[in-house]
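Give me the fold.
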Amino acid sequence: MPPSGTTAPLDTVTMRATARALLAEDAELPSEDELETLTLWLRGHLMLALPVVEALADALPEDDAPRACANVAVMETRTRLSVPPGRTLPARVARAQRLARSVNTLCDHYENLSGGHPVVLNPQRAALLRLWNHCLGCETCTATDEHGVNANLKCPAADALYEDYRRAPRRVDRAAVSGGGRP
């Protein structure tokens, strides 16, 4: 039995639905505000998926083809996340579509590599995922002021999750995960 809080199932249905909003053939061009929201959701999905797919890939032998493919997808996703938004609406839409394609790709790798089994992450990454999951869906954490800038409201739940993250060990206790000894 894995230690409490170190499994990280991804909600691929929600992730793919967000990506579909930009990639579907019948998708309508979003407004500036809708595009900003979709882009934030896609970035959040990618930040959640990256460590999970990395952990799955790292569990495979170094010469394994699925591991190499997943690692390429992870590197490409990190590159896409580092690209700043464009100045024009078409440039921002194109960037969001690239992020949406990365979401779909990481969902594919997650589904192929996990086989429906929970993924064991180091406790610090698991704590960070819990914090991100909370902040992405929390009205307090995502509240904006009249200029559309994050209002930085105090959220006790986010503060507690941040403290959990800060105090979490950086390594997985292999004995606790496998039930003692090496598998």
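The CA atoms of residues 50 and 179 lie 27 Å apart.
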